[in-house]
Amino acid sequence: MGFTAGIIGLPNVGKTTIFNALTAVGAEASSYPFCTIEPNTARVPFTEHRLQTLVSLVAPPKWAAATIQFMDVAGLVKGASKGEGLGNQFLGHIRTVDILIHVVRCFENSKVAHVEGVLTPVADMETVNTELLLADLETLHKRTIKIKKLIRGGDKKLIDTLKIIERIEMALDQGQPARSVPLLTGEEARILKELDLLTAKEVLYLANVDEGDLQGQSSLGQQIQQQALEEGAEFLTLCGDLEASISEMDPEEQDQFRQEYTLSASSLERLVATVVSKLKLIVFYTIVGQAVRSWIIPENTAARKAAGRIHTDMEKGFIKAEVLAYDTLISAGSWSDARQEGFIRQEGKHYLVQDGDIVLFRFNV
Ligand SMILES: Nc1nc2c(ncn2[C@@H]2O[C@H](COP(=O)(O)OP(=O)(O)O)[C@@H](O)[C@H]2O)c(=O)[nH]1
Ligand SMILES: [Mg+2]
């Protein structure tokens, strides 16, 4: 189980530049190698201050941050939903991801052609979103035909599914994504998930701005921000070219450079952190043997399931979890001090792991 963010957008908006910069960051964020899985997919570490503090406290020979997978999806063009260009391949790829990072070009560059000739970020967003909407309408159309047949054949359970499909179709017809449809029950949410729609996925708009406009204050950046706000979507700015150059520097040089540009933290780290929070994921830590590691799980994951994140044997043979909150470990100074003080809690398989927990799983092999 992993989580994947798909970088999407029109051609020449900076998707690959951003993907490569993200991949380069991985190289120095762990003592384990973070490899590119396939040419267009890479694991990117979620670097956050707690892991760094734990590593300096424990000084383990090995450590590794949990990762989010990023996929550089082929550029989308008008007509993709009808199979134009790499249409089908593109849509097939984004179907597999958990969240869409929709890159919108706001940088001028006379050497790099814009597919439509001029910079029109809001129209660009719409071009991409329309293709996703059309693809979903097509999916729903096919599903409706199938479901109606099954209902006629006596499968009355599917009547609810059909009702939800109709509600979603209505939204799509008005240009609204499936994620905007308010769902009343867990059952409705389950049906929506099963429909596997592209516009049901969370979206994060990423304005790829000029070097001189890192805060996205230009009118182009503002337009995207406004649009994202109206959709209730997340919005971030970065300069792909700049991040790509920074990612090639050594760490000290990077810090210096960021100070000059008054970039508080790496925009790429901010991007990964936003993906984590948007997907409602939390982090827990293990300090076992020679390694300190962080792990990412969805909120409200039970201890036994969380153990399975590390190894299926640990889930199967789960006995109990010994748990310590991050802050308590830091104030105690070490795991053994915390144990002496009686701070370590014994939790069963139903315990819901909390963000920042440090967990030692006990299991039968
Ligand atoms: N000026 C400028 N050029 C950029 C920026 N990001 C990407 N580019 C350039 O735009 C071109 C297309 O970028 P690429 O990442 O291949 O776009 P993709 O087709 O979306 O993957 C490359 O020549 C990049 O160097 C940026 O932030 N500023
Ligand atoms: Mg590309």
Automatic annotation (TrEMBL):
* Residues noted as binding ATP in the record, renumbered to the chain: N12, V13, G14, K15, T16, T17
Cited Gene3D superfamilies: 3.10.20.30, P-loop containing nucleotide triphosphate hydrolases (3.40.50.300), TGS-like domain (1.10.150.300)
Record domain OBG-type G: where: 3-258
Q: Which domain of life is it from?
A: Bacteria
Q: Which residues does the UniProt record annotate as the domain TGS?
A: 280-363
- Cofactor(s) named in the record: Mg(2+)
Q: Which UniProt keywords apply?
A: ATP-binding, Magnesium, Metal-binding, Nucleotide-binding
Q: What does this protein do?
A: ATPase that binds to both the 70S ribosome and the 50S ribosomal subunit in a nucleotide-independent manner.
Please name the NCBIfam families in this protein's record.
redox-regulated ATPase YchF
* Cited HAMAP family: YchF_OLA1_ATPase
Q: Which family does it belong to?
A: Belongs to the TRAFAC class OBG-HflX-like GTPase superfamily. OBG GTPase family. YchF/OLA1 subfamily.
**PANTHER family (UniProt xref):** OBG GTPASE FAMILY (PTHR23305), OBG-TYPE G DOMAIN-CONTAINING PROTEIN (PTHR23305:SF18)
- Under which name does UniProt file this protein? Ribosome-binding ATPase YchF
Q: Which organism is it from?
A: candidate division CSSED10-310 bacterium
